[in-house]
Write a structure and sequence with these properties.
heterodimer; A: Rossmann fold; B: about 400 residues; alpha/beta; globular
């Protein structure tokens, strides 16, 4: 699905990623954990195509394409989805209208016909249920006046509508209470299939009680320094990140 | 010496103009000539023209070169229409009740604005629209400009006591048109009357369009002015509203899309002379390329005009690094029990919002277009006339596809 090799990236001259390597296959859930400033959100931003970052070395192959060579929207058309840590409020742009445009642009890129109004509305009804998002919220302006939890649920709703191959969830658990966390996680689990994959970026183990990862990676100082199964997350929860830092320095 | 002096007046411009063929009274002629004799041609030193340079007017050549409009349009299907071609009321149109296009002598309305004086002296057509009952009739004046010419329509819009009316001023020019459009519109909104004017300015790329509306509102009346400067070399609108009676409502909305070297200037004044009135103004626009925009909105609340609610807002989005906006909202309040607010913002499209939309699969162009439409949508929501609204919406879309 996606293969990241020896990725180095700078922002404003400061190196953030220092040789990150990661392979994710279809059907897998990977969690990326790490202390603040390790480069977790940078990774998410680079995958989605944020232009502020300069890639100095390495490559990323997604669905056979050179991902770094594609524009943000082309990545979306290929099936990449980023759930934002801070979803943007866009007054005056209705959630469903923009999603319809998004779906149709993706369909057009694939040479498919636009979605019919009937089919689209049926999809809105079906997918908003997954994250228990009020259909009124679905038709309101994008994220405007939404609570933190509603914004995150809206991210997963959009993910459900766009049906991506690879979803990158950037600290989707931040700012969520336990009920919202359960709803969001349940949404992600419902959407999981043998054909898609997700990268769950999180600081805390809490989310991984609900979204059970196949792999847990620890990102520290721009590199993946440790990989394990879900038990690694529990160990991190118990011991914090300092032992990883020490271990890395010794190594 | 003599020549230096006259050059600072309107003489250069006036040499190229043909005096009106309509009958104007000696008194009006004298007043207009006086104004033009003592007024200087506007320069940056003049506060009202500080950011709008109209020197280009003197360089226009009214050679009459005729270029047809590629896509002529009418706005409202069921409106009663009058066509005015290159300033002249087209012949052979059937008479419309309430609309007067021929005069023994022009009405005496007059201000001390030199451009109004020019309008009177060189008037190419005078049209009166009068509404007399409470049925909401729509009258559309279609000004088609295909020849490079100087046109001076003088308009009188009268909405009588208890009447309801809608006027669409539809200005359109051939894309390459280089005309001087100069319009004076005198508006009278009677007691309990409700008048809406929608003005579309879709002028040729080299056209100068200078317009003034002088509005008087009587008690319990509602007046709405929606202004849409969509294209042209230079557009200047002076909207002056005197709210003379109690319990009036006044709405002013404007949306503009500027690109290339266009310049647009909206000056508005609402003068709340008496108590218990409400006014709301919302002007929003997008500025691309090297275009420039000026907004100056004045709200006066006179002494003893208590319980006035007046709101004013101007917001601009710059789509390029080379566009310019000068925005000046002004409030002058002499009463103490009022609720007034004003605000002005100028910024760029939210990069984060563009990125968010692109990450969902929208192209950069589609994302920006969606955001601009949403931004201007706030103004269009205020427009009750669906046909005007959908026309302007379509123009905004076209603005991006061009």
């Amino acid at each position: 699905m996606i293969e990241i090799k020896n990725l180095h990236a700078n922002i404003e001259g400061k190196e953030i990623l220092k040789g990150l390597t990661l392979t994710v296959n279809a059907g897998e859930v990977h969690a990326i954990m790490g202390p603040n400033g390790a480069g977790k959100s940078t990774l998410a931003s680079i995958l989605a195509g944020r232009e502020e970052y300069e890639i100095t070395e390495g490559e990323v192959t997604f669905e056979g394409a050179d991902l770094l060579d594609l524009s943000t929207e082309e990545r979306a058309h290929l099936g990449l989805f980023l759930a934002f840590q801070y979803p943007v409020e866009i007054p005056g742009v209705s959630n469903v209208n923009f999603l319809r445009t998004a779906i149709n642009e993706t369909r057009e890129a694939k040479g498919e016909d636009p979605i019919s109004a009937k089919e689209f509305m049926a999809m809105v009804r079906e997918k908003s249920k997954i994250v228990e998002l009020d259909s009124k919220l679905a038709s309101r302006s994008v994220n405007e006046g939404f609570s933190g939890g509603e914004k995150k649920r809206n991210e997963i709703f959009q993910m459900a509508m766009l049906n991506p191959k690879l979803a990158v969830l950037d600290e989707t658990d931040s700012g969520l209470d336990i009920d919202a966390l359960r709803i969001v996680a349940n949404g992600v689990n419902t959407l999981k299939s043998a054909d898609n994959a997700s990268i769950v970026i999180t600081h805390y183990q809490r989310l991984l009680d609900y979204i059970v990862p196949d792999f847990v990676h620890v990102l520290h100082d721009g590199k993946i320094v440790k990989t394990g199964n879900k038990d690694l997350a529990l160990e991190l929860e118990e011991k914090g990140y300092d032992w990883i830092k020490e271990e890395t320095q010794v190594g | 010496m003599e020549e230096v002096l006259t050059q600072t007046k309107f003489d250069i411009l006036r040499t190229g103009l043909r005096p009106t063929a309509l009958n104007i009274s000696d008194a009006l002629k004298e007043k207009a000539n006086n104004v033009l004799n003592y007024s200087d041609f506007p320069t940056r030193k003049n506060e009202a023209w500080k950011y709008t340079n109209v020197n280009g007017l003197n360089k226009l050549v009214f050679d009459g070169k005729n270029i047809p409009i590629s896509e002529p349009f009418t706005i409202a299907n069921r409106s009663k229409k009058i066509h005015i071609t290159n300033g002249q009321v087209s012949e052979g149109q059937s008479a419309i009740p309430g609309v007067k296009t021929s005069w023994d002598v022009l009405p005496e309305f007059f201000t001390d604005d030199p451009f109004d004086a020019l309008n009177a002296l060189y008037c190419t057509s005078a049209i009166q629209v009068e509404f007399d009952d409470s049925e909401n009739e729509t009258i559309e004046l279609i000004f088609e400009n295909t020849a490079n010419s100087a046109i001076f329509p003088r308009l009188f819009i009268q909405c009588n006591k208890g009447a309801k009316g809608t006027v669409i001023l539809n200005f359109q020019g051939a894309e390459q048109n280089a005309s001087f459009i100069n319009v004076s519109t005198y508006v009278n909104v009677g007691e309990n009357a409700n008048l809406s004017i929608h003005k579309i300015q879709k002028n040729g790329a080299d056209t100068f369009d200078l317009q003034r509306e002088y509005v008087d509102q009587a008690a319990n009346s509602t007046f709405t002015m929606n202004t849409f400067p969509l294209s042209g070399r230079l557009t200047r609108n002076d909207l002056k509203i005197n709210v003379n009676g109690n319990n009036c409502e006044t709405f002013m909305n404007g949306a503009y899309t500027l690109k290339g070297k266009s310049h647009c200037d909206n000056h508005t004044t609402v003068d709340h002379k008496v108590a218990h009135c409400y006014s709301k103004e919302l002007y929003k626009g997008v500025i691309d390329d090297r275009a420039t925009n000026v907004f100056n909105g004045k709200v006066f609340v006179r002494k003893d005009a208590q319980k006035i609610n007046a709101f004013q807002s101007n917001a601009n989005i710059l789509l390029s690094d080379t566009g310019t906006v000068n925005s000046k909202p002004e409030l002058e309040i002499y009463a103490d029990d009022v609720k007034c607010s004003h605000g002005s913002t100028t910024g760029q499209l939210d990069d984060e919002a563009v990125f968010y939309l692109r990450s969902r699969g929208l192209s950069e162009k589609a994302a920006k277009e969606l955001l601009v439409k949403a931004f201007l949508g706030e103004v269009l929501e205020e427009v009750e006339n669906e046909e005007v609204k959908s026309y302007v919406e379509a123009q905004i879309e076209k603005h991006f596809s061009a």
